[in-house]
């Protein structure tokens, strides 16, 4: 499945530019994380959890779950929108298990929609391979051109 009107190499340029966009977001300087676009409709974020993300009871705060689940689903969906930045309009989150330390992987997968509204889901898996959370998001095409964002550069690489 390729974005309409794009070649395979064009899609790869778009995917690499999305990875660069993720890395350039100021909020991501707060997290040890990296984005990998696997293929159209699929994204993976690897991140480390340590005590700096704990709530008072000694496990990762839900903000970490939300951020990584939202980002993985968002980028999975944005692989299908090559012209516009998507915006999260809603996100449902389910906590399955607390996590304390180690690498966590957020896997995002596009579910439906290609014009104005996109639906994508994501899941978090801990270092033992157990699911610790999952979510589903709805994303809408914004008026913001991807090409207008300083971190999005399909020609870099």
Automatic annotation (TrEMBL):
Q: Which Gene3D superfamilies match?
A: Hotdog Thioesterase
**Pfam families registered for this protein in UniProt:** 4HBT
Q: Name one GO molecular function term.
A: acyl-CoA hydrolase activity
- What keywords tag this UniProt record? Hydrolase
Q: Which residues form the Thioesterase domain?
A: 58-131
Instruction: Give the protein name, as stated in the record.
Output: Thioesterase domain-containing protein
From the broadest rank down, the organism's phylogenetic lineage runs: Bacteria, Pseudomonadati, Pseudomonadota, Alphaproteobacteria, Sphingomonadales
């Amino acid at each position: 499945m390729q974005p309409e009107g794009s070649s395979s190499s064009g899609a790869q340029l778009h995917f690499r530019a999305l990875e660069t966009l993720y890395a350039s977001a100021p909020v991501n300087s707060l997290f040890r994380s990296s984005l990998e676009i696997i293929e159209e409709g699929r994204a993976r974020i690897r991140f480390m959890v340590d005590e700096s993300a704990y709530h008072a009871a000694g496990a990762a705060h839900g903000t970490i779950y939300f951020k990584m689940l939202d980002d993985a689903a968002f980028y999975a969906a944005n692989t299908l929108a090559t012209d516009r930045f998507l915006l999260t309009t809603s996100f449902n989150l389910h906590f399955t298990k607390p996590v304390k330390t180690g690498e966590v992987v957020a896997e995002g997968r596009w579910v439906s929609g290609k014009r104005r509204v996109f639906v994508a889901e994501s899941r978090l898996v801990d270092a033992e391979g157990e699911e610790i959370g999952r979510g589903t998001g709805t994303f809408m095409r914004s008026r913001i051109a991807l090409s207008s964002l300083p971190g999005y550069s399909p020609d870099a690489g």
